[in-house]
Amino acid sequence: MHYRAFLTIDDNSSYELKYYHNPNRWNRCVAQLNNNPILDINNWTSEYKFYDENGSPNLNNQLPDDMGGIYIFYLKGICLPFFENYILYIGKAEITNGQNIRKRVKEYYNIPKNRYLIIEMFSKWKNHIYCRCFPETNNDKIAKDESLLIQTILPYYNEDIPNNISIQQPIKAF
To answer: What is the pLDDT of residues 8-53, one digit of tens each?
Structure first.
């Protein structure tokens, strides 16, 4: 018997996400990030659950407040948590007098009402969202790496492809 026979529309359609597994994009990304420390998990912060077990903000004060960087929100399943990870959103925090990676990540506890997809992301999976950060001090590198990761992974909740990429115009086939 097929497992889909046991699924109801109500159970799954509202939680359905599209994810792209494209080895060509992966290979281009890895080639462009050649020897980039972002490829080593040891250079990322430890994962932490964005909301604690009671649904309260898990204020991770271990994130650096003197750097910018890349942050990733991801969904972590509970059946096989060491395998069930799904990147939902990739963002950046450039280091300025008023901004750093810790401050930027904490801003997601007060999401502006016009960030509909981010609101949806947290309302659907609040208790299963984890975060990791890659601290960095070079703002140009932060922007470039974030752009490349978004282009490669195409996370569902990233609405915009960063501006610093070029998109070729379509060519007529006939």
So the answer is: 556 677 888 888 889 999 999 999 999 899 999 999 999 999 999 8
Distance from the Cα of residue 22 to its chain's centroid: 17
Instruction: Please give the class, per CATH, of domain 49-159.
Output: alpha beta
CA dihedral 48, 51, 52, 56 (to 10 degrees): 150
The answer for 131, left when phi > 0, alpha when psi is -120 to 50, beta otherwise, is beta
pTM equals 0.86
What are 161's two structure tokens? 């492809």
Tell which residue, 117, 105, 76, 71, has the closest CA to residue 90: 71
- For CA atoms 139, 142, 147, 148, the dihedral sign is positive
**51-55, 126-130, 142-146: least confident range:** 51-55
